[in-house]
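ping. complex inputs:
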Amino acid sequence: MLEGSKALLISCDISSLVIDTLCKQAVDENAAVACFYFDFATHEEQSPAVILGSVLKQVVYGLEEVPERIVKAFRDREKVIGGQSLALAEIVEFLQDISSSRRTFICIDALDECPPTHRVQLLDSLYQTLQNSSGARIFLTGRQHILGEVDKHLAGRVASRSIIPTKEDIIIFLQAKLKEDTMQDAMEESLEKEIIESIPETVSEV
Amino acid sequence: MSPHHIKDNINSFNASISFNNVSNNYTMADEKSEILAWLSPLGPQRRHKDIRTRRVDKVGDWLFQTEEYRNWIGGIQGGKSDGSALFCYGGPGVGKTYIR
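pong. complex structure:
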């Protein structure tokens, strides 16, 4: 029965929650919000240039005008057959440029799903993006085993916080799921109460 | 070359001329969408929408009250961090959180 709670509070939920909240604030502040969700299942390459290219795209999308330097880079590359894409260093530079004059939130979910070599390069690129850029803010999620690596590569920049579902989270979650139950009649109020009351104070993880 | 082939060639020539005319008349908006497509073919917002739909409202809201989050959103220095980056981590079992 409680198997369903497996999906209670996984990293993408936290990312999605934070991104939604940032997006609401962004409208008032004229800030940019960009996100990337890592996905084991995808067959597409998820290299740092691909990830930050996608982030840059989202940031540029929100701008009234495409920055001149990007337009120039595009027009220069257009002449090359196939339209050569930007190098990682250029992407980082453009992100730095934009975020130095505009609050820019970059959210990357499930960083642990990124292959280790790409991950280190990505973290270093994020660190660089933060250099000389007062408006950039980075939000990351992932499993605990990469905490040391994140601390090392974003030294002086990053704070960390563990995410463990609270009892309240579990109650809200279960109530929502019980409402969705297709066999509504089978769930009597007293049984629902019993289930909620049986939730322990602490949640242990497997 | 048969007349048929010549006609085909003229047609494709005309097609390329009209294509060139179109590309000469690009508006800024057209170029912006081309630049966006060039920057990245990906659209992760779609994934965000999928997750958004299955997420339960109010679960995890406590994060916004934590000192770490407040420092990050405010860009305030705290501990080892200057407030510019925040890493939220789950234990090795996150995504597999069971109630015992």
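The mean pLDDT of chain A is 84.
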